[in-house]
């Protein structure tokens, strides 16, 4: 399929990555008391996945100078073509990462054959981005899952505060952890006893899910508060 340039400046590698980090920290705070929603967001190395529980899911893979994302909306399942065809005009390195990594998070059993089911794709760098579909159709086919992640820090912060009903102290923790992570992405951050108290976690399953979600982005619970 022909590539379509995304003109909205928010849809670039850096802004989306920062938006995914913000969303993930908010999610890790929230699931401490709401473990049933742990499936909504996760990281596996450089791969961030999100699922709305209503038929849409997507995964983005971040390279050093580019990103590629695949999305699946069940409403368009019957119209899905070969996933590789959606990237036919993308750079070779993008195609390789998509096939080898990104699409592996979107596999399904199609008449006994395990294949990636992808309804739209998005790729680009810090300057420009492209999709297999024009903007509105791209959003309908699943990319709307990343609308908040691509909206910038202030809009994202306001959204996650309301969506997860964060307390004032939890919002401060979210902002603090976000800036620490953005300023030094490779640094391991350890939550203090005071940070853990802000989560107000009382459910063991929630504590385990929160610990896992934080750990996926190298934010660790300190050992003296993990039990």
Describe the structure.
The protein is α+β, with helices and mostly antiparallel strands. The chain has one domain. The protein is built from 7 helices and 11 strands. It has helices spanning about 15-30, 90-100, 135-140, 155-165, 170-185, 195-200, 205-215, and strands spanning about 5, 40-45, 45-50, 55-60, 65-75, 105-110, 115, 120-125, 130, 190, 220. A 7-stranded antiparallel beta sheet has the order 1-9-8-5-4-3-2, with helices on both faces. Strands 6-7 form a two-stranded antiparallel ribbon. Strands 10-11 form a two-stranded parallel ribbon. A hairpin with a 2-residue loop joins strand 6 (about 105-110) and strand 7. The chain is globular and about 50 Å long. The termini are far apart. The mean pLDDT is about 95.
State the secondary-structure class: alpha+beta
Radius of gyration, in angstroms, nearest whole number: 18 Å
Total number of strands: 11
Low-confidence stretches: none
Averaged pLDDT: 93
Q: Give the strand content.
A: 15-25%
- Sheet with the most strands: spatial strand order: 1-9-8-5-4-3-2
Shape: globular
Report the total helices: 7
What is the compact description of this entry?
With 227 residues, this protein is of the alpha+beta class. The chain is built from seven helices and eleven strands.
Topology:
Blueprint: E1 4-6, H1 13-30, E2 41-44, E3 47-51, E4 56-62, E5 67-73, H2 92-100, E6 107-110, E7 113-116, E8 120-124, E9 129-131, H3 135-140, H4 153-163, H5 168-183, E10 189-191, H6 193-199, H7 204-215, E11 219-221
Parallel strand pairs: 10-11
Antiparallel strand pairs: 1-9, 2-3, 3-4, 4-5, 5-8, 6-7, 8-9
